[in-house]
Structures are given as C-alpha cells and as structure tokens.
Amino acid sequence: MRPKRIGILTSGGDAPGMNAAIRAAVRTAIHYQIKIFGFKHGYNGVINGDIIELKRNSVANTIQRGGTILGTARSTEFKTDPGMAKAKKTLKKHKIDALIVIGGDGSMKGAHEFTKKYRIKIIGLPGTIDNDLFGTDFTIGFDTAINSALEAVDKIRDTASSLERLFFIEVMGRYAGFIGLAVGLAGGAEDVLIPETPTDINGLAKQINRNIKKGKKSNIVIVSEGDEAGNAFIIGEKIKAILDEDYRVAVLGYIQRGGSPSASDRILASKLGYAAVYGLKKDMHGCMVGEINKKIVYTPFEKTYSRKKKIDPDIYTIIKILAE
Ligand code: F6P
Which one of 121, 152, 208, 234 has the fewest beta carbons within 10 angstroms of its own beta carbon? Predict the structure, then answer.
C-alpha cells in the first residue's frame, strides 16, 4: 500500500551528499502528495519523538552543504529491545507508515532488525564515505571524501619532494580500503596498504629503498586506517626499524568527512533520494537502494552489510606498475 506519511533520518557517520539525498526524498514525496517528516539525530530521534515536518522550503539551499541538516548519531539505545519498542511507539503516535534511513552498514543493520521485529516498512540509502556497502557501486559521500583526501595528498607531496622525505598518509575507511585505493591511484602514491590484502612490511621496505636509490624525490605511502599491520605511525616505525629512514606521518582524519559534496555525490544522492520514495510508493521495502552499472537496484538489507563488497585488485596492480 502506498504510504501517506513517511519519516526520514540520517544515521552513523555523516557523509557529504546526505543533504542532497534528504532534499531529493522530501521533494519527491511532496510531488507525490506524501507527507514527510525528519527525525533528528538518527534513530535517537525516533526513540525520543524528535520529529519535524519537512516542506519544500525546509530543504532549500541544502544541496551544496556537507554534514546533515537532520543531525546524526550512532545510537546504542536503538540496539536494545526497549529502545526499539520506544521507536515503534513514536511511529505509531505520528502515524508514520514508512521510513527512509540514510547511513552505512550499522544503519542498514539497524533498519533490518527494526523491520524484522515490527514489520516497519523501511528503505535504506547508502550514505558513508567508506564505500563499503554491498549493493551499490558507490556510496553517497565517497567521491567527495576521496577528492578532499587527494587535495591533502597533493599538498603533502609538495613538501615531501622539497625535503625528499618519506611520508605515510593515513586515510579513513574503517575496515575497508576503498578510500585508500582510490586516493593511492589518483594521488600517484608509491604504495597503498589496505585491510583487504596482507601487508608485507619487508617488501615495502625493499621497495622504498629501491625508490630512494633510484633518486625518487618523494615516497608517499597511503595507509588505510584499518590495515592489519597497524596505523601510519606503527607502519612508519616498522619501516624505520628496517631502513633507518627518517619519515613523517599525516593522518587526514575528519577533513575527509566534511565539505561541500562533489557533483558526483550530489547526482548520486539526488537519484537515490528520488528512487527511495519511488520504491516506497511501489510498496518496495526491506531493502537499500543503490546504483550498479548506472542502473538503480534494490538490495535486501541483510545482503548490504553481510556480503563483502570486493575491492578491484587491478587498481592495486596499476598503482604498483605506475610507481615503478
Ligand atoms: O564510517 C565513516 C567513518 O568516517 C570511518 O571511515 C571511520 O573509521 C569512522 O567513521 C569514525 O567514526 P566516528 O565518527 O565515530 O569517530
């Protein structure tokens, strides 16, 4: 049955483009004469009844803004039975008959649990800089994050080559290496360490040594924060123990999460925000909407977080060949 009143929330780590997705969902809902309400600070807003009606104007001038106008949270209460029960009560009180959840794997998992327990109609949107959700080629926020990281890598290269220094640059991504790989390729890094492949510290030391002997002016190694060999400081120390080479570390951190969304993120967010409302209207729920090979696809919640999205091993090969 077509919903009459839907709720929308952003959950987990914010990602550039979340506002563009909210805007698209709000305006599509209004176009189809569906009322839409925003919950503040993720699932906590549903638990506490922190709700506002969203009108066309509520999302004016937001497509270009980073962060999320609804606020977000990593709700621990929602993981508990009483928390979920309170959330269900709020939906009943406000006669919300479907929800749109924008977030990463934890948010999709929460949506799935809520659906299973109370048969709530929910559609998810992939919003995370990590790009680690199965069921979409790209997540909203990834493109902006890699561009922000790249800008920083380019700047670091200026000083790295002036002083002929070895740098370890740590990027985000939690347990996934999508950011690391993309930034490594686009930033012309000498090597990239990602959690999906085993890190060979001795091999890395040999390569850095060869590069120095060849007269390479800068040596930039991108370290994904989730690499099993350790963070950028630990890797730096391990290499120093072998090569006795002076090095510097730059942890890019939260600058990767902020800023105005790129054109690609705004386009993806607008398409998916529209597709979420369209899907609910067609009585599709219990799934996340994504884009694969330029086509909109709806993937059951469980697959989005339990299946591992694969990195492209060719990218790693290309990085190595181009850095020879
Ligand atoms: O999931 C997005 C992300 O930015 C990860 O890349 C990072 O590991 C994590 O969030 C940081 O989490 P928090 O915002 O809780 O510090």
Answer: 234
